[in-house]
Amino acid sequence: MLDEGRSKLHRVTIGPIVASDHPLGRRAAGRGWSLRLDAEAAAHPVQIVHIATAGESHLPAEIVLADDAVAEVVETFVGAGWANRFTRVTLGRGARLMRSVRLLQPAGFVSLREEATVGAAASLVTVFFGAGGQGSRIDAELTLAGEGAFVDYGGALLTRDEQKQECAVAVRHAEPNGTSNQTWRAVAADRSQASLAARVEVARHAQKTDGEQSLRGLLLDRTATVNLKPELEIFADDVKCAHGATVGELDRRALFYLESRGIPPARAEALLTHAFVADALDRIGHEAVRAVFIADADAWLEAAL
Hints:
By secondary structure, the chain is an alpha/beta fold. Helix content is about 15%, strand content about 55%. It contains 4 helices and 15 strands.
């Protein structure tokens, strides 16, 4: 339900949105919010705040940018309950979209179904940050449908106590000269669990594809779990694709070095973990938005360490 008294819609409209065939997307069928920009248009940053009030809430959304349009969207999830969202993104030739999504619910569950079609020479950059107490599931299918399309998709999931957060992302290169980066970081404390699955698919005629995956997990306690699953499915023969996946603990030599310089152990751990998480959050283009996300990460670290 839209809080009209606290909202300024500007270019955002409310109306019916075509549902997805995905089970989570079907549950979010009906009326939702839409951002549509004509060719060469530019929108001021759009901020969407999702407030869960117990129970269930299901909401669809769409972002459609015509050729060479530019937009930035920041989304924040707060409250408690099950927040289920479906978002469809369609980018025309040369369009550019920057999305930054924070999951900050102290309890409950957030499920996100994302579907994107990226046109020729268009750019989609999306960064997720999970630092609340909620469980979460990010499920995405992204198609580079035009020559020279670019996708940068990833983020950081921070878990503690008995919490579970997970993501499953498939990036499909359907045309030549596409570039995709998937950079995910997971930090797990106590008995929590984080799972990251990232797949790159390259069609037979999608030559000159450049696809990279970087999945890294950091265990703050040996009772925590991080699961990583990078996948490559390549049918073209002239491509540059790579993936890396590592799980470990903080570097003891780096901790010793910091502590030998007079930095308390807890502060040393926080500094190293901050650098680990910032590797994913630094992809947020807007400086003020990036600063807020990093501040949330520091607050989480202060509570967890």
